[in-house]
Amino acid sequence: MDSQVNTPIEEQNAILSPATDTENVEQNVLPAEEASAASNVETERKQYDSKKAVLDRVREIAHNEEAPQKEEVDYLKTCFYKLHIAEREAKLKEYIDGGGDPEQYQITPDPDEEAFKAEMLLIKEKRQQLFKELEQEKQDNLQKKLDIIEKIKAMVTSPEEANKSYKEFKALQDEWRDIKNVPAERANELWRNYQLYVEQFYDLLKLNIEAREYDFKKNLEAKTHLCEAAEKLAEEDDVISAFHQLQKLHQEYRETGPVSKELREEIWNRFKAASTVVNKRFQQHYDNLRAKEEENLAKKTALCEKVEAIVAEENKGSADWERRTKEIIELQTEWKTIGFAPQKMNVKIFERFRAACDDFFGRKAEFFKNLKEQFKVNADKKRALIEKAKALQDSTDWKSTSDKLINLQKEWKTIGMVPKKLGDQLWDEFLGTCNKFFEARNAAGAGTRSEERENLEKKRDVIERLKVAAQEAGDGLQERVQKLVEEYQSIGHVPYKEKDKLYEEYHAVLDKLYKDLNITVAKRRLSKFKDSLKQVAERGENALDNERARLMRQYEQLKSEVQTYENNLGFLNASSKKGNSLIDEMNRKVQKLKDEVQLVRDKIKAIDAQNAAK
């Protein structure tokens, strides 16, 4: 007999999942949030690790008979462009790391992307066509069901013909069951009208007891089978599949006719209990999914904060940029391991993460663009020094040329960096040119070894006398030290292996002497200057102003020299003994210049005090 003729509407509605209500009875559709969650679970099962795999699936959907599912199509689109953007960024990074100019980088057309867009257009057209066909089918089905209701309504108005119309009535019920989707907004009203007139017909129908009992028996067998099928779904591993299967069982249960009155509640409660188990499993799965999405959102928010903190830090050089680039790439890799965030936040949190990354890499590209320009200037300077060295490499004027080449080497160290590969090439060429001369000089000067040993002994003697002077005092100490320095500097070369050790010993003694002498000498010079101010003032009205102007020029010149030396110190490489020696020497010169600057400032103050006393 007909489906649920004598079953209350409240019992039918109770079969549905807890998340639905009576407005969804006819269509058995999922609420939007649960449908989205179910789709997310299904699409998350397959992970794509290449654009080709995504494209193959898109082609399969575009050219086979299956109806494209919006959730899967959107997921495929997200996967494709996630892989596409990652591939494009990797190419850009490889280009920049290879010394390429970010401003000159051009994105080449991607055949896979063009193919993907073409297939997606086919899918869009296919979905639009299917949607139109489905809507038309729903309208046709609506009209068919309205016609069936009108026919049953006519039967109800002729009670004397009820028994004769039974076969036609059963045929109309079968036809009703075969008709599927109708417009959702008309579904409930349609079902209520149909149910009303079916029940009225059964009230009028006077079947014999045997026929009615036979129908009840067959319907009980069918509903018992549906209960067993629903109970087995509790053992289904795939929760989503079990839920969808349950929806189909609901539809079959509703379309199965009534059972005897004394068994109706029992069979209904059995089916409802089995449905509740499946619905609870699905609801728990959905809750777990949402909890996981919230956890993913928290993880992604933490990554955004880390990237933003890195972006806010100051990068003082290329090493900082490269170190922080590595940190951001590691965070991007970690980001890819985290699943979806809640749908409302998924795009927003990605845009926040991407904006911070884009800001960093944009500023990095600008930095390296400027650095590349500086590299070019430095490379040109080093090439010019190579040409100067080549012009000297065949000279036999050993002393003069040695000094010139050593000066070129010192100048080389004051030039800033160039790219490592090019820098190594230029250095090898420069060093080879210098070595050619020095090897020739060494070959020609083999007879000078004994002279160098004698010079070594002479310089050691001067150092010993300086040590003695360091223990003495007196007004003539500075003059004695200066004579010893001049004597030391007048002595020729010493053996190369002894040079650095002798240099360190000499300057250690000299630094201590200069440190002790400097304060005393400066005070004497300032005192002498103050004593001479009266004599200067007697030369004329503007004599003091002229002297002050001269001192100001000297002050500015000394400051400029200090600045030049300090800038040059920033370019020196102290990784070798020779580099350390040069740095120590320049530091001593800088300190001496600073002392001189202070003395000039004190002289200017003395003039200002003299002018104020007039």
End-to-end distance: 130 Å
Global outline: rod-shaped
Which H/E pattern describes the elements? HHHHHHHHHHHHHHHHHHH
Weakly predicted, low-confidence segments:
1-44
How helix-rich are the residues, as a percent range?
A: over 70%
Rg estimate, integer Å: 48 Å
Beta-strand fraction estimate: under 5%
By DSSP (H or I, 4+ residues per run), the number of helices equals 19
Largest sheet: none
Label the structural class: mainly alpha
Mean pLDDT: 79
- Count of DSSP E strands? 0
What does it look like?
It is built from 19 helices and no strands. With 614 residues, it is mostly helical. α5 packs parallel to α7, α15 (449-470) runs antiparallel to α16 (477-490) and α18 packs antiparallel against α19 (577-612). The longest helix has 52 residues, at 261-312. The radius of gyration is 48 Å and the shape is rod-shaped. The N and C termini lie far apart (130 Å). Residues 1-44 have low confidence and may be disordered.
Topology summary:
Blueprint: H1 9-14, H2 32-44, H3 51-63, H4 70-97, H5 111-156, H6 166-178, H7 184-204, H8 209-232, H9 239-255, H10 261-312, H11 318-336, H12 343-392, H13 398-414, H14 420-444, H15 449-470, H16 477-490, H17 496-537, H18 543-569, H19 577-612
Helix pairs in contact: 3-4, 3-5, 5-6, 5-7, 8-9, 8-10, 9-10, 10-11, 10-12, 11-12, 12-13, 12-14, 15-16, 15-17, 17-19, 18-19
Keywords, please?
614 residues; mainly alpha; disordered N terminus; rod-shaped
Summary?
The chain is mostly helical and 614 residues long.
